[in-house]
Design goal:
Elements: H1 2-12, E1 24-26, E2 32-34, H2 43-57, H3 59-71, E3 74-75, H4 76-83, H5 87-99, E4 103-106, E5 117-120, H6 122-126, H7 131-156, E6 159-160, H8 161-174, H9 184-196, E7 200-202, H10 266-276, E8 287-290, H11 292-311, H12 314-326, E9 341-342, H13 343-349, H14 358-370, E10 376-380, E11 386-389, H15 391-411, H16 413-425, H17 430-437, H18 441-453, E12 458-463, E13 473-478, H19 481-509, H20 511-529, H21 534-541, H22 546-586
């Protein structure tokens, strides 16, 4: 046993196998899971991206998008040849992908004069799954106006401030009581607040665009046009653009207009009218998009605050919330911890409504520092003590808790006990697992082999001699948290894809009934707007029979459950992605 302990020092530095120095595992579907950073997309990610593109943009865009995901950067001619689609359909599909930021284009790899090549971003397409969460967050922070602004920009990909303000004001006016309207200035104020808090950002200018005309402004933002225009270099990131968060002076005077009746195609006609509108507002050519990274930072902070509230209490969570709010501007998005804050600064920044006295604050800070989850750390003694929020450690502990929860739900509490034991002790022999977990040998052996077959636990061989003889080899069980989190992330992608496919199937099976219900609802809305008699409304409502109503209710219940499950799985996806990205950034 002492010899075994001697080799554990080498294990702490990471024991590598013969496969190029990487610890490898095999997932259930045969895909290789690597411990090192992996940039290639998996089959589950491509499948999920295809389903999201089909649901939001149609089958043609799905075909072009998934083809680029699988094949990599390609020029227009190659895409047309390999997909078998017409030139017009491919161009329109690429326009849609570029408009929504799911694809970029750059000059060919063969040098100047070579055909423009198109790339698709898997990460950007997967963010479509999080659209409801972005919209709900905007509603929580900025009310109905903020919700509609984010929704409009997500639907359009990117658009101007004046166009967004007009559309949102019209939609808000439509839902107001008769005689009331929404002023453009109110919507513009909310738009400016979203920009000030970095939830919205300008689209960066494309290099090489607008250089032909020397009188043109130096900043020419990306505009939705034909994507086949050649570009000399790849487009810059929005943060590299100095005026990324500068709101232009927009002259918008007026109030939202109420539509008398909702007709099919009204949204498309209003979009065309906006393009042909000769009126200028001072922001022509300046396009805005949603800053997803800022939303992700907000989600990360809220996840940590919620975890502190569940682990300790509400007051502790408010202290952590205050620390995160104070360090929003000074902390880098990929930092492992926030900038140090003194206890005096934290005390002055606490909400007055909580009435927390200074001695009580010191006690809470000590409690947070001593907590095993390590949400808060101490960085010094000046100013009553310097404290930081350990962002990476918090995400790592939350990811660990997620893995433990998955093991417990799938394999039971005893397997979860073994899993937690291996996470804490790092490397143990089977006999040690039995002793520490206090589980009979036969049961412990079965549970370990089950976890090993699911790639949740790894078996490490430590030979005493070069011949790897079993009698002279230590067999140690261990859990590698990062590759296990990656494997669980792929399972989450697969789960969401299955949920989307099930929802599309349910909708397709009841397509006729849903169309009938929509037609009747449209007739009822038209009759109500024209002031029809109650008898007429009742007669129209009776066009749907009782069995059909029951079938519709059951269908809507199933769809709501599937939507809710998608959102819940996406929360797990976000946590695992944040942990993996934070680990990669800190390594």
């Amino acid at each position: 046993m002492m010899k075994q302990m001697d080799v554990l020092d080498g294990l702490e530095k990471g024991v590598k196998d013969v496969n190029g120095g990487r610890n490898l595992g095999v997932s259930k579907d045969g895909g290789t899971i690597e411990c090192e950073r992996c940039t290639e997309m998996t089959a589950q990610e491509v499948r999920l991206c295809g389903l999201l593109l089909r649901e939001h943009f149609g089958e043609v865009v799905e075909k072009v998008g998934t083809h680029l995901l699988k094949s990599g950067a390609q020029n227009l001619r190659t895409i047309i040849h390999e997909t078998g689609l017409s030139v017009d359909l491919v161009k329109k599909s690429l326009c849609v992908l570029v408009q929504h930021g799911a694809a970029t284009f750059s000059s060919g790899r063969k040098g100047p004069g070579s055909p423009t090549e198109y790339h698709t971003s898997c990460d950007r397409i997967l963010r479509i799954l999080r659209y409801p969460r972005y919209i709900y967050t905007a509603k929580t922070l900025y009310g109905d106006t903020g919700e509609l602004i984010i929704e409009e920009l997500l639907q359009r990909g990117h658009t101007t401030m004046s166009s967004t303000v007009k559309t949102v004001a019209d939609r808000l006016t439509q839902n107001m009581a008769e005689g009331r309207t929404m002023d453009y200035n109110e919507v513009s104020s909310t738009f400016s607040k979203l920009v000030e808090t970095h939830f919205l950002q300008r689209c960066p200018p494309l290099p090489g665009v607008g250089n032909k005309d020397s009188s043109a402004p130096s900043e020419t933002p990306a505009t939705p046009g034909t994507p086949a225009a050649p570009v000399n270099t790849a487009p810059p990131t929005p943060e590299s653009f100095p005026e990324c968060y500068k709101v232009p002076s927009v002259t918008l005077i007026g109030r939202g207009k109420r539509q008398l009746a909702s007709e099919d195609g009204e949204e498309q006609r209003s979009a065309k009218r906006a393009k042909m509108d000769p009126e200028t507002h001072g922001d022509e050519g300046i396009y805005w998009q949603v800053n997803f990274e800022r939303f992700h930072l907000h989600f990360r902070d809220q996840t940590i605050i919620s975890a502190v509230a569940n682990k300790l209490d509400q007051t502790s969570s408010e202290i952590v919330r205050t620390m995160l709010r104070m360090s929003e501007v000074t902390t880098s998005p990929m930092a492992t911890c926030t900038k140090p804050l003194s206890a005096n600064e934290i005390f002055r920044s606490l909400p007055p409504s909580y009435n927390i006295l200074r001695p009580i604050l010191d006690q809470y800070l000590t409690l947070l520092v001593d907590d095993p989850m390590e949400f808060v750390g101490k960085a010094g003694e000046s100013g009553g003590g310097m404290f930081v929020v350990n962002l990476h450690r918090a995400l790592a502990n939350l990811a660990r808790a997620t893995l433990e929860s998955v093991v417990q739900e799938r394999f039971g509490s005893r397997s979860a006990r073994i899993f937690r034991l291996l996470l804490r002790k790092r490397h143990l022999e089977q006999k040690q697992v039995e002793d520490f977990a206090m589980i009979p040998a036969k049961e412990a052996k079965d549970m370990l082999y089950t976890l090993l077959s699911q790639n949740l636990v790894q078996l490490q061989e430590i030979p005493k001699t070069p011949d790897y003889a079993p009698s002279r080899t230590f067999y140690l069980y261990t859990v590698n948290q990062l590759p296990t989190a990656r494997m669980l992330l792929q399972n989450c992608y697969k789960t969401v894809a299955n949920l989307i496919e099930r929802r599309l199937f349910e909708t397709k099976e009841s397509k006729r009934l849903l169309e009938k219900s929509q037609r009747i609802e449209a007739i009822l809305a038209s009759l109500q707007a024209s002031g029809a008699e109650p008898e007429q409304l009742t007669e129209v409502e009776e066009m749907i029979t009782a069995p059909e109503k029951q079938q519709l209710d059951t269908l809507r219940l199933h769809i709501n459950k599937l939507d809710s499950a998608e959102n819940q799985v996406d929360e797990t996806i976000f946590l695992l992605e944040s942990y993996i990205n934070s680990t990669n950034a800190s390594s």
